[in-house]
Amino acid sequence: MLGMELGLAACLPHDYADGVFIGRAEAADGPHVIVLGEGRIRDITRIASTVSGAIARRGFSGGINLGPIEDGLPKGWQLLSPIDLQCVKASGVTFAVSAIERVIEERARGDAAAAAAIRSELEATIGAGIRAVVPGSAEAMALKAALIEAGMWSQYLEVAIGPDAEIFSKSPVLSTVGHGALIGVRSDSSWNNPEPEVVLVVDPAGEVVGAALGNDVNLRDFEGRSALLLSKAKDNTASCAIGPFIRLFDAGFGIEDVRSAEVELVVEGQDNFRMEGTNRMTEISRDPLELVAQTLSEHSYPDGFVLFCGTLFAPTQDRDEPGGGFTHKVGDRVTIRSTRLGSLTNTVTTSRDAPKWSIGLGAFMRNLAARGLVEMA
What is the bridge-based pairing of β-strands 182-185 and 342-350? Predict the structure, then answer.
C-alpha cells in the first residue's frame, strides 16, 4: 500500500506509546474500527462499529487484541481515513499569509503567471496591517475602512479580519481518503497545491475530543477565477485526506498542543522537484475553539464533525519556469507530519483517475447490516 512501506509505527508520532489513537482499517469483510493504546492494536468494531459512535459514547476500551503496534495491521488489512459518519468542514483564510495569497488569486483571476507582481504590491501595502489586527476588533474594522477607501478591499479580507470566519463543507460523508491512499487533483487544473492542516474532531455535543492531520487539496486557478467556484475547487474525488489516526485528547495531549503545533510539508516529485514548508498554528488569526464555535453557531451535527483549521502554507516556489509558481504533477509524493500527530503521506493523481468513491452511506449501512453491526453504529 502506498506510503506504508515502513510499517504502521512509522506513520505514528514518536510518543505513540503514551497516547490513544482511533482509526479505521479495511478488511475482507469491510471496515473495522481500531484503537491504538498501551502498545497494542485493538479491534472495537463489535463494541462500536463506527468511529462517530465510538466518539459519541466514549467507547474506546475493550475489543479484540490484534497484537503489538510494531507488528502492524493484520495481513491484508489497509488503513482508511479515520472518520466515517462525521461531516467534513473546513475553515479558510485563517492565516495572514494565506489571506494575502487568496487576494492574489482573485486579482490574478487564477493566472499563476500574474501572481508574482501582485504579491509584491499587496505585501508592501497590507502585509503588516493584516498581521497586526485581531479579526472583528475595532482595529480590524478601521483597517477595513482604510482598505476600502484605497480600493483594495476583497471578499477574502472580509473573512480574514472581519467578525465572521469562512466555514465551508469540504467533502461528503465517507468520501475522505487516508494515509497511503492516492489523493486527487482535478485534471483540468493548472495551478493547485496541497494544504497541510490540523483537523479538529468534534463530538455531537460540540466538544473537541481529538485531532488529526489533513490535506485540504486546493485549486488556486478555479477559486481565483471566482469564489463561487469554491465547491468545484475543493470537493472532488479523493481531494480530502485525513490521518493517519485521530489522536484523542487526554492528560498528555490536548488543545494547547493543537495551538502550538507545527505541521511540516514535503512534496517530492518524480521530476526530482522538492518543496518544503511549515504551517505554524501559533500564527493562526482565530483560535481553533473560536472556529469550532462559529461552525456550531447555527447548526447541529448529530454524528459530530471534523474541522480543518486552515493553513499558513501557500507555496510561491517556482517549479518549471521563473514566475510560474508551484503546481502539482501526477506522481508527487506529499508528506504532512507533526510531532504529536504523526505523518500523513499520499501520492497525487487526478480526481478523474483516482479510485472512484463507491462506498457511500447506503453501501456502508448495508455492509454493517450484513455483519450484524448496525445496532453498534
Answer: parallel
